[in-house]
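ingest -> validate -> predict -> emit
validate: passed (alphabet ok, no gaps, 231 aa)
predict: started
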Amino acid sequence: MRVALMNEFSQASKNALILRALEKSAAKYHVEWFNTGMRTDNDQPVLNYIHLGIQAFVLLNTGTVDFVITGCGSGQGACMSLNSYPGVNCGYITDPSDAYLFTQINNGNAVALPFAKDFGWAAELKLEDIFDKLFSCEGGGGYPVEMRDIQSKNGTVFNQVKDLLCKEPVDILKALDPEMVRTALEGEWFCSCFQKYAKPGSLTAYVKEIIAEKPDDPALPGTDGHDGSKN
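emit:
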């Protein structure tokens, strides 16, 4: 299982603490992790929760990672941002029971946590417990177990509805502000993870064009101002 941790600017200073908790849990459950967001207050590019949604959308829909862990001060903005996209089902997690119920009932592929609200002494211990609940058992087992089939069916219908309401992945990126997309995807750590594991497909090909563009290019490939052709 491959997991991406991503922090935005307001909680970047806590990235090392969050990562230590993730490393402990990942080692127990054979999880490969990537730290694709901001790591310190001085990192560039500066990411906000909107950028995190774009990163998660790309990483999950290209098969680069299987799961995303993110958050912000309250966790709410990151959760809303990620849930804007098809192929991303993000749960709002505040404690280990949330984590367990989310994996067993909703079987999503991303979580958003509050990294400022109620984040005090021994917060890293709570994080370790949350990560343990996320990784210690296979998702979709149902809770209570006898409700598994109906919960699984509801999840399938939910994904179908979400897909019908959304554009194709490449069209989504083309519709967004080019500079916002470029900022979300140009970071060294994101690019390293993406280039290593992204599966072939139209979204992967388009993102590779974006990150290959020079920073001062006026538009993303395939959008107004640039036809995406290579000379």
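The first strand starts at residue 2 and ends at 5.
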